[in-house]
Amino acid sequence: MGEILALAHAATQPGWWLDFRHDIVQGLGDYIAYEDGAQHIRIYQNFVLPGLLQTRAYAHHVIHSISAISPDSPRVTERRVEARMRRQDVLSRRPPLELSAMIDESALMRGIGGADVMKEQLERLVELMRLPNVTIGLIPLETAGEPIMVESFTLMSFSAAYDAELPDVLFLESISATEFRDDSTTHLYRLAWESLATAALTPDESLDRVLRIARDRWGR
């Protein structure tokens, strides 16, 4: 219980995201606080690229698409895009966040925003894949055996604080809410991560695949 209380205390400290609290979806402020304090984040994304890797144009189209279900004003959409861009500062802070991401290859084939947006997005992805603190593995379309049927998820790990080892935090995202679990459920998603890692291409193979998709599908 002490570890959980320590983590909760760390996540409630004032931060830049408070300026966006009236515009971002419920629960996202807490998520950003955890993200800002994390040492290592593992993300599996099966439909779109993770927010920490998105360009502004790509993020705008992703966030705007939600308006078809939950209408928002253009101002709110832009505020949410801006918050997403601010979140990416964790990749260049000192010390930087260590980010590991498993991405389904189909996310790179999906034409969000059109060819120009996707070309720019994959060029940005290549830049990030070459950073020492970013590791990305693609789950290839030709994955052998049964597909790994699991929703997108994020596992966050933290440095020790307040003389306590802090537990990993699991984040699951839906249209209407965010969800945190630091109980035994987290263990199941660690196992899912290990299975995904087994199915994924190596970082070098993933980089080659991204370059090929950028050239063959979105190149001009």
Automatic annotation (TrEMBL):
Pfam families recorded: DUF5753
Domain of life: Bacteria
Domain DUF5753: start-end pairs: 29-210
Descriptive protein name: XRE family transcriptional regulator
